[in-house]
Design goal:
This protein is an alpha/beta fold and 143 residues long. It has one domain. 29% of the residues lie in helices and 18% in strands. The protein is built from 5 helices and 6 strands, in the order E-H-E-H-E-H-E-H-E-H-E. Helix 5 (127-134) links the parallel strand 5 and strand 6. It is globular, with a radius of gyration of 14 Å. It starts with a strand and ends with a strand. The protein binds iron/sulfur cluster (SF4). The site of iron/sulfur cluster has 12 residues, from helix 2.
C-alpha cells in the first residue's frame, strides 16, 4: 500500500520560497515503499514561490469547521486554496488506497504541531493534517 509524502521532504522545490526540505530518513523509507508525493499548497492552486501563510483565529481543524481562516503575509485570504489542497491530497489517498502519510513538521498545511496558527498552546494542526485525521489517515511527522 503506498504512502503519501510531503513532496518537499523528497527534495522537490515546492516550498513557499522555492526551496525544499529534503529529509534523508524519509528518503530511506520511500526507497522501500511505494509512495505518492503531494504538496497540498500547490494542489490547492497556489503558485511557487508564494507568500507564506498563517492560520488566523485557530488551527487547521478550525479552518475546516469554518471558524478560522488562512492569510498570506501579503494580506490575501488563501483559505480556499488550503482547503482545496487538503481535499485534493485526500483524493490521492482514496485513489491509491494509502492509509498513511509522511508529512512535513511545522507547516500550516502539513504539520501536526504548526506554530503558524493561533491557539492557546501556540501550536495546532495544519489544514491538510487536520483533514487527514478527520478521514482516518495516519500521519508520521518528518523533517
Ligand atoms: S510542507 Fe506541505 S505544503 Fe509546504 S511545501 Fe512541503 S509539501 Fe508543500
Amino acid at each position: 500500500m503506498p504512502v503519501l509524502v510531503s513532496a518537499c521532504l523528497l527534495g522537490v522545490r515546492c516550498r513557499y520560497d522555492g526551496s525544499h526540505n529534503i529529509d534523508q530518513n524519509t528518503i530511506q523509507i520511500i526507497n522501500k515503499t511505494p509512495f505518492i508525493p503531494i504538496c497540498p499548497e500547490q494542489l490547492g492552486g497556489l503558485s511557487t514561490p508564494r507568500y507564506p501563510s498563517n492560520i488566523i483565529s485557530g488551527d487547521g481543524k478550525d479552518v475546516l469547521n469554518g471558524n478560522a481562516k488562512v492569510m498570506s503575509i501579503s494580506g490575501e485570504d488563501v483559505t480556499e486554496f488550503f482547503i482545496k489542497g487538503a481535499e485534493e491530497s485526500y483524493r490521492l489517498a482514496v485513489l491509491s488506497g494509502a492509509k498513511k502519510a509522511i508529512l512535513k513538521k511545522r507547516s500550516p498545511s502539513c504539520g501536526l504541531a504548526t506554530p503558524y496558527c493561533q491557539t492557546y498552546s501556540g501550536y495546532g494542526l495544519g489544514v491538510t493534517a487536520a483533514f487527514f485525521i478527520n478521514h482516518g489517515i495516519e500521519i508520521i511527522e518528518a523533517g
